[in-house]
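Recall the central idea of this unit: under ordinary conditions, the amino acid sequence of a chain determines the structure it adopts. In this exercise we apply that idea directly, starting from the sequence alone.
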Amino acid sequence: MTKLQEYIIHNLSMLFLSIFSALFTIVSVVFFIKLATYTAVIQLSIFDMIKLYLFVMPELLFFTLPLTFFISAALTIFRLSNDNEIIVLFSLGIHPKFILRTLLTPALLLSTLLLFNFFFLFPHAKVLSKNFITYKKSEAKFNLSASEYGHKFGEWLVFLGEKNTDETFSNVYLFNKKSTQEILIEASTAEIINDSGILRLKLSDGEGYTYSKEKFTQIDFKEMIINDTFASKLIEYRSALDYWTSDERKKKKVATFISNTLMSLFPLLSLFLILSISIVHARHQKNKIYLYIFLGIVVYFSASLWLQKALSFYAIPAIIVVWSIGTYYIYKKTVVARF
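Accordingly, the structure predicted from this sequence is:
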């Protein structure tokens, strides 16, 4: 790498870090605000919140890194143009392709990292996050208070008399009304058991009554286990390929796969556009760099979403070809023709 390339990369990296830290902080704050809504349903400790944050980290990085690269690369070249450094380089016979090759290496590395992130890390983190929230929701069902009505355990209505020092309950009553019969269970003590997210109610020394229009039955028991039949099932993760090819929520996965692929390729596909909007002659051109950055991002992702619905997987090659040709044409007209 030449001194000139090192200089450009150094300027790019400094601006990249400053913009990335700002964007990443904003999306992290938004995530924690969203996370606060979970606390209305489940109890989360500081450690739990940190764990959920780590699970969502690949997703946060995925959406901030390509935008950061596009913005920082455009502003870096624009700053060099505004200081007339780009004009000096072209006066010395350096072709715009040199800047293009300089930006190609970090863009290629970033796109490779993003493809690995969304295809391999994203499914694993997504499953871990969903299972963790499911587990915490099932755990929240344990928050039963003594001497209060309205508690439910699966399909059972539960009343707990008193809470003992050993975390068990005494004077326990369960009621279940079905279409043809009603069931009432009375137990001396009850213990709530969490077996890897599966909730169980262990009843000791009690009686059970079943009555309908035809008959009335009674049983005595020393120990009875009641499972929560409505407990949510945890998602089983096998591999990234299995996650993307499974039929579960297939339509949403296809849309995510297409949009994430195009998002991953955005740093590479945006190189011609970056040079087109950022290489200017400071004395003769009034460049609206921030407007062009905004329009470039909006047009790319709007086109991606629209074509994704219309063409499905064909949207990926269509966007690559049309965007590459379109931005190269702009690059030829605005940069190569003048410099």
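The chain has two domains: 3-139+249-336, 151-227.
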